Amino acid sequence: MTLADRLKEAMKERGLTQSALAKEADMAQSMIWKLISGKAAKTGKLVDIAKVLGVRPEWLSDGSGDKYQMDDSDIAIMHYSHSMAVKIYDEENETNEVFMVPVFSESPKDLASCRAYRITQNTGCSEAPEGTLIVIDKLVEAANNDLVYARIGKNYSVYRYVQGGSMDFLSVDDSRVPLIAVSPNVEIIGVIVYLFREMKRRR
């Protein structure tokens, strides 16, 4: 298992996207992408990343030792979290509900630019199936491979953002589905910075 594999595993467990991790670790999102894609094998911010993800830096770096630290000091860090209220929207309509978002940082970032949405249909992206609750940040600029919430015509859904040189695109997991060019007819509501879903459906 490589650093990229361990990083993706820990991010999935925490429900953090590239944008959210970059924001919490105070890093450039491009560096997170390089680590996940394997284009970079080390970073001076490894300890900060591990702290946000709640894992041991040694495990994240080279896979040595336990994934989680069990001494008192690190347990305190793992359980040090804040919850902040994010308003839930139905398309562009604000509801009277809020969702408490756990912020895994000693310096919680302002979530005033964030909104929460319930996904009520199949999106075509395995990371955000029907039933997922997503939190988007309207001020974060989309980077390659980010999950975004977008409106095409009257339809709202989750897509993966693909940078393509002179033109950017939206995609889903099925490669047979054509890429959708980002144009004036496509509105990017925001980049998904948190997502919450059941890992296994109850029967």
TrEMBL record:
Keywords for the protein's UniProt record, in alphabetical order: DNA-binding, Membrane, Transcription, Transcription regulation, Transmembrane, Transmembrane helix
Gene3D superfamilies for this protein: lambda repressor-like DNA-binding domains, Umud Fragment, subunit A
Key word Zinc-finger present: no
Transmembrane intervals: 177-196
Protein's name in the database: Transcriptional regulator
InterPro entries according to UniProt: Cro/C1-type_HTH, Lambda_DNA-bd_dom_sf, LexA/Signal_pep-like_sf, Peptidase_S24_S26A/B/C
Organism of this sequence: Xenorhabdus ishibashii
HTH cro/C1-type domain: residues covered: 7-60
CDD domains associated with the record: HTH_XRE
Classification via Pfam families: HTH_3, Peptidase_S24
GO MF, any single term: DNA binding
Domain of life: Bacteria
